[in-house]
Amino acid sequence: MRFLKASLLAFATLCCMSPRAGATEQFFLKNGDHVCFFTTHRAYITGIPQCAASLMYFWDTFTWATLHALLDPVNMKNMLRRWLKLNIHSCYAQDMITGHGVGPWYSFNNFVVFNQFQTYIRTTGDMAFLNEQIGGRTIIEQLEQMSLWWKRLVKPYSPLADYGAVEFTGVCSKLYARCCILECRECLDDASSRGIA
């Protein structure tokens, strides 16, 4: 069983690489393999070896969130806890050696991080996780704040949030970034209908 799980995880990682990825872009390292990670015994690195060999990008991790929840739910839960401690509005990835946020803010951070919480909960059924306290607030309270963060970006001339210049939208269009608020709202409504929020 252990071998099957490791094989599926390796296969899933290779299959879910982003289109710009090289064969060595996504891999995981463990303590004891001459790299010491700050908080976890296993880290799934999604940066390229040439310039981002220790980074775990929010959006890359989002592309294989269901597999992460199925094959390594404990690791995913710990990752989500770490991300709530970061200011995801000031970075696009976490450095797995230092634990610090890296890079500029990207407009779809809220969507991909929120969606990974939703994927973890729906896949594992671990509803108690939402009541866990991190930074003095429950996870569900932080998710509610995350889902409403777009309201800070609404301009007087439009009912939609203005996510700024193209450099803040990463590799997606502004239309996609603005649609993120609808998805976060749907996730929060789902939690409310289950009596969580």
Quick summary:
This protein is mainly alpha-helical and 197 residues long.
CA radius of gyration is 17 Å
How does the major sheet shape up?
Answer: 3 strands, antiparallel
What is the overall silhouette? globular
Beta-strand percentage? 5-15%
What's the pLDDT, averaged over the residues?
74
Explain what this protein looks like in three dimensions.
- By secondary structure, the chain is mostly helical.
- 43% of the residues lie in helices and 10% in strands.
- The protein contains seven helices and seven strands.
- The protein has a three-stranded antiparallel beta sheet. It has a two-stranded antiparallel ribbon with strand order 1-2.
- Helix 3 packs parallel to helix 5.
- The longest helix is centred in the C-terminal third of the chain and has 20 residues.
- The radius of gyration is 17 Å and the shape is globular.
- The N terminus is likely disordered.
